[in-house]
């Protein structure tokens, strides 16, 4: 038996398991100690009896349970023994209810739904937008364009680039121009030689001044509305110079044009002399008869129209630049002369026109005009060699081109501009003409305008998903826009804010585009340029030629798009929160319902 303690009652040791278990279930009992040391043998193994001492208020008793075991009794600190978050309650003490089944079903369904949504969100990605200073180190940026000038001929349509430093340059190397008809349909390929070539603006071999040539009368007849109509009705071939008295190019051309008229009269006089010799009529005519015979034999009527004195007449014939040399055959306009403005070249042009109109076998009226022009203007061996070389390399030009059916021009190509504010503009300009400002119309259709590499649209449109919706439209907001000016001295100006945008290509970009479409994989990250645009109608002074102007400015802030994916530990944390949170919330609801129903009872 155990010794008695002060004011305590000791019981005999009772080896019964049930009494020990029963004692531990009551709140009145408080476990004091388990005197293991007193019941271990010298070999470290427990005796056959293990005792536990309990105290009931001021009484202490010991309950022992007999156990035959050869294993050492496990030792555990009191705080570890009490640390149990998963204590079990016997199933016999639980009671199932219909309400609990319903709430459990709802909890399971909620968990499954949230689990599916969370899993789908984990495997999907989100688009992240970042703003930073533009770190692009490229010196130039490419401008791609395709613009249709609705009422400007390709002869006069030019593109100039002006930088922020004030430097200006004419760009023709990477620009192609296609004439279009009045319906906007491209008819034929022209201007294949992208670099513009100058033409001789006047014949330097003509040494006489215009006053010296007019001393014996004007052979190039000045025309107005009435006389031009009479000349077209009376002559098969009419060659007219539409000029302005303030035009410097026109003043330089005036002696050459007068010389050409004298050459045509000399050709006619040679024919009259040949006819007189043939019929032995040398002295049987008067001066009036001789002049009439020369007028009949005149191969081409050479005239001129001052557009300052007759603006309506020039406007009817769509004269937009000075001087404009127009050829008429049987009263119909067949086109403008664009070759070298020398007497020999224009005489050759007249001969070719007759051959095309009548045929080579019947072209006799202008025969000899080129020879007379050569004798009149070529005085040195150098000039002779130049004329022969020019004749050997000359290509026959088809002059059936009707300019009235091709008033517009489609301009396409690209520019390499500095990464600095600047502008490029399409204007009517010619090295060989002075433009009429009131006749210049720069109405245009922007078929395409973008910045950056041209193949970037394929990666944006078809291959990449790393950009927001509508991103392709922001890189080309002008496409398809029409800008029409209805009054004189007006033009549309466009302002572009260009924003560098970087985005990551997909992993299969190289496979998709490198093999299927023949494009190589671009460097990472891929770069495009978004455009913020605005347009306004600008007014010009009467003496300034309007122009379609595009002013651009590159933003110092760059935008970058990237895909973000959730971390795996974030996904598992969310799953645990879903399971635990759903279980807890549904449990709270069920407990509340149970408490309410219990009160009603």
Automatic annotation (TrEMBL):
GO CC list: COPII-coated ER to Golgi transport vesicle; endoplasmic reticulum; membrane
Region spans: Disordered: 355-375
PROSITE patterns in the record: THIOREDOXIN_2
Keyword DNA damage recorded: no
Basic and acidic residues bias spans: 355-364
The keyword Membrane appears for this protein: yes
Domain Thioredoxin: 199-355
Compartments in which it is found: Membrane
Alphabetically ordered keywords of this record: Membrane, Transmembrane, Transmembrane helix
Major subcellular location class: membrane
Record Pfam families: COPIIcoated_ERV, ERGIC_N, Thioredoxin
Membrane-traversing stretches: 571-596
Top-level taxonomic group: Eukaryota
InterPro entries, per the entry: Erv (IPR045888), Erv_C (IPR012936), Erv_N (IPR039542), Thioredoxin-like_sf (IPR036249), Thioredoxin_domain (IPR013766)
Protein name listed in UniProt: Thioredoxin domain-containing protein
Record organism: Thalassiosira oceanica (Marine diatom)
């Amino acid at each position: 038996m155990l010794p008695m303690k002060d004011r305590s009652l000791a019981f005999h040791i009772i080896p019964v398991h049930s009494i020990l278990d029963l004692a531990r279930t009551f709140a009145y009992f408080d476990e004091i100690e388990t005197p293991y040391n007193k019941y271990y043998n010298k070999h470290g193994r427990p005796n056959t009896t293990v005792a536990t001492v309990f105290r009931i208020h001021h009484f202490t008793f010991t309950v022992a349970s007999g156990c035959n075991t050869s294993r050492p009794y496990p030792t555990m600190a009191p705080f570890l023994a009490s640390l149990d978050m998963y204590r079990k309650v016997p199933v016999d003490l639980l009671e199932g209810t219909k309400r609990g089944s319903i709430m459990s079903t709802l909890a399971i369904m909620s968990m499954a739904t949230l689990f599916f949504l969370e899993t789908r969100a984990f495997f999907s990605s989100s688009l992240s937008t970042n703003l930073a200073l533009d770190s692009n180190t490229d010196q130039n940026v490419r401008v791609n364009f395709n613009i249709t000038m609705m009422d400007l001929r390709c002869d006069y349509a030019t593109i100039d680039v002006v930088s922020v430093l004030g430097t200006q340059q004419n760009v023709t190397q990477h620009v192609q121009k296609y004439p279009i008809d009045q319906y906007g349909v491209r008819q034929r390929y022209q201007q294949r030689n992208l670099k513009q070539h100058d033409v001789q603006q006047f014949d330097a071999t003509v040494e006489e001044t215009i006053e010296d040539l007019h001393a014996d009368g004007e052979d190039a007849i000045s025309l107005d509305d009435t006389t031009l109509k009479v000349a077209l009705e009376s002559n098969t071939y009419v060659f007219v110079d539409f000029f302005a008295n303030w035009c410097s190019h026109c003043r330089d051309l005036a002696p050459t044009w007068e010389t050409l008229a004298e050459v045509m009269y000399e050709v006619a006089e040679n024919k009259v002399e040949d006819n007189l010799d043939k019929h032995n009529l040398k002295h049987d005519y008067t001066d009036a008869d001789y002049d009439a015979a020369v007028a009949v034999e005149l191969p081409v009527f050479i005239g001129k129209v001052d557009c300052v004195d007759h603006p309506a007449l020039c406007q009817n014939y769509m004269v937009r630049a000075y001087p404009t040399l127009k050829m008429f055959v049987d009263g119909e306009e067949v086109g403008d002369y664009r070759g070298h403005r020398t007497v020999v070249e224009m005489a050759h042009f007249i001969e070719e026109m007759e051959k095309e109109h009548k045929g080579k076998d019947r072209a006799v009226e202008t025969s000899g005009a080129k020879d007379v022009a050569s004798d009149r203007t070529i005085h040195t061996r150098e000039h002779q060699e130049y004329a022969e070389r020019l004749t050997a390399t000359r290509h026959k030009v088809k002059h059936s081109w009707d300019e009235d059916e091709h008033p517009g021009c489609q301009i396409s190509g690209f520019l390499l501009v500095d990464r600095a504010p600047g502008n490029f503009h399409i204007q009517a300009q010619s090295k060989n003409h002075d433009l009429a400002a009131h006749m210049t119309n720069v109405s245009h259709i922007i078929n395409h305008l973008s910045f950056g590499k041209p193949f970037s649209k394929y990666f944006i449109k078809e291959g990449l998903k790393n950009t927001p919706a509508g991103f392709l439209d922001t890189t080309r907001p002008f496409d398809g826009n029409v800008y029409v000016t209805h009054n004189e001295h007006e033009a549309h100006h466009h302002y572009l804010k260009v924003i560098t945008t970087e985005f990551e290509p997909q992993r299969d970009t190289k496979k998709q585009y490198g093999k299927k479409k023949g494009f190589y994989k671009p460097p990472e990250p891929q770069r495009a340029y978004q455009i913020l645009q605005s347009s306004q109608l600008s007014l010009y002074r009467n003496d300034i030629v309007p122009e379609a102007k595009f002013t651009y400015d590159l933003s110092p802030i760059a935008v970058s798009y990237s895909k973000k994916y959730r971390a795996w530990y974030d996904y598992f944390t969310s799953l645990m929160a879903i399971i635990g949170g759903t279980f807890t919330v549904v449990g709270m609801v069920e407990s509340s319902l149970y408490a309410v129903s219990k009160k009603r009872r």
